[in-house]
Amino acid sequence: MQSKPAPAIVGQVSVCYHFVVLQLPARKSFAIIPVIDAPGLKGIMMAVTIRNTEEHEKMLDNLKRQTGKTTVSKALIQGGYDALRYRKSYESEKASREQAEQELRALKRKVQQYFTSKADLESVISG
Hints:
The protein is an alpha+beta fold. It has two domains: 11-52, no CATH class; 54-127. Helices cover 54% and strands 16% of the residues. It contains two helices and four strands; from the N terminus they run ββββαα. Strands 1, 2, 3 and 4 form a four-stranded antiparallel sheet that branches. A hairpin with a 4-residue loop joins strand 1 and strand 2. The chain is rod-shaped, with a radius of gyration of 29 Å.
């Protein structure tokens, strides 16, 4: 049976109102942990691990530029909110597009029926 590996970093933060960013050089990743342990708020905590690859670094730099944020953690949070807002906008636009396509199909059927009826009338008249 394998034993569990020991944690690389062990610590405790009782009150912290800002982001703690720990660089983990062994794995070349980052842990971004906002910790709040204030009266009335029970241990709200989040950890994000990002592999420090060149591709991710470029993406994070682009995200910081796009969001106008100066730190990766702020850019990630803003990017998340932007994604939620754009998703809602996408869903609304998708519904509008689907309704317009349905109306277009109905109009195409009516035009086709008109030309079919016109051809039938012309064939009866010419007879």
